[in-house]
Amino acid sequence: MTKKIGLIVGSLRKKSFTDAVARQAAERLPEGYSFEKIEIGDLPLYNQDLDDNDNAPKIWTDFREKIKGFDAFIFGTPEFNRSVPGVLKNALDVGSRPYGKNVWNGKPALIISVSPGAISAFGANHHLRQSLVFLNVPVVAQPEVYIGNVTNILDDDLNITNQGTLDFLKSAVETLADWVKRFEN
Ligand code: FNR
């Protein structure tokens, strides 16, 4: 059966560099793997009172159900002030609760960090990795995917122009596909 990979991007910008790079990576998943973008921009900020009172917004419960239907995830993250954008952290938090019902549990993930700067969103990449480890997500160890100076490899339509980068992204998503098999129950 086709394995479903969820694409989650920590930028809400229409012309997001991160979205462009993560999508072009996902398009290189091997045969037998499909991907779908999961929107996170409308999720209300996490507030435990709502879960405690059995009053979780439908949009949270729908999101949690949706996440359960995926086999693995590609996380594309930009860096905001040396960390993960709040919108992405909020999506992780919403999926992690109520306590004991973490929907990310055991599903492998690949992190792709993207920046126009030279440090390649290293800080966001590592903070995201740490949160995912806490959520019991097996995060692809190698290759680590840091895409820096991104505007040098994108054309006006945000297509990646550098074959070496495309080959590298392909190898990364192939590794994620291997990890799906490795962690299959
Ligand atoms: C940034 N940017 C940024 N870049 C970086 O490499 N390290 C950082 O810590 C930050 N901090 C930061 C904070 C905030 C609030 C914004 C809006 C931006 C710049 C960022 O990398 C740039 O805007 C990217 O283009 C954002 O990614 P998308 O939207 O193109 O995917």
UniProtKB/TrEMBL annotation:
InterPro entries: Flavoprotein-like_sf, FMN_Rdtase-like_dom, NAD(P)H-dep_reductase
Database matches in Pfam families: FMN_red
Lineage: superkingdom: Bacteria
Domain called NADPH-dependent FMN reductase-like: residue spans: 4-150
Protein name per its UniProtKB record: NADPH-dependent FMN reductase
Organism: Oenococcus alcoholitolerans
